[in-house]
């Protein structure tokens, strides 16, 4: 699976990075960035949890 973060919606709460630090990282602007090209199978469950936990639904499955 692949994911993207919609920067217009992200409020930088950090939940996604806390749930799955392998995939999400807060950048210098304090917004979440996807740091992998493709989500590994091991990370898929936590990425799905991050998608559900994002308060602004900014994480989209691509
Ligand atoms: S959980 Fe959503 S709003 Fe919070 S940092 Fe991640 S993408 Fe942004």
CATH architecture grouping: 2-Layer Sandwich
- Helix/strand-derived category reads alpha+beta
Please report the first level of CATH classification, the CATH class: Alpha Beta
Instruction: Tell me the fraction of residues in β-strands, as a range.
Output: 15-25%
Summarize this, please?
With 62 residues, the chain is α+β, with helices and mostly antiparallel strands. Helix content is 29%, strand content 19%.
Written overview of the protein:
With about 60 residues, the chain is an alpha+beta fold. It has a single domain, classed as Alpha-Beta Plaits, CATH 3.30.70. Helix content is about 30%, strand content about 20%. A hairpin with a 5-residue loop joins β2 and β3. It is globular. The site of iron/sulfur cluster has 14 residues, from α1.
List the helices and strands and how they pair.
Blueprint lengths: L2 E3 L9 H5 L4 E3 L5 E3 L6 H13 L5 E3 L1
Antiparallel strand pairs: 1-4, 2-3
The structure holds iron/sulfur cluster.
Iron/sulfur cluster binds next to helix 1.
Which features does this protein show?
62 residues, alpha+beta, Alpha-Beta Plaits, two-stranded antiparallel ribbon, 2 helices, binds iron/sulfur cluster
């Amino acid at each position: 699976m692949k994911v993207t973060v919609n920067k217009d919606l992200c409020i930088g709460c950090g939940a996604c990075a806390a749930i799955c630090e392998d995939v999400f990282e807060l950048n210098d602007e304090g917004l979440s960035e996807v740091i992998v090209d493709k989500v590994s199978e091991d990370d898929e469950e936590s990425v799905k949890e991050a998608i559900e936990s994002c308060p602004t639904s900014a994480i989209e499955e691509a």
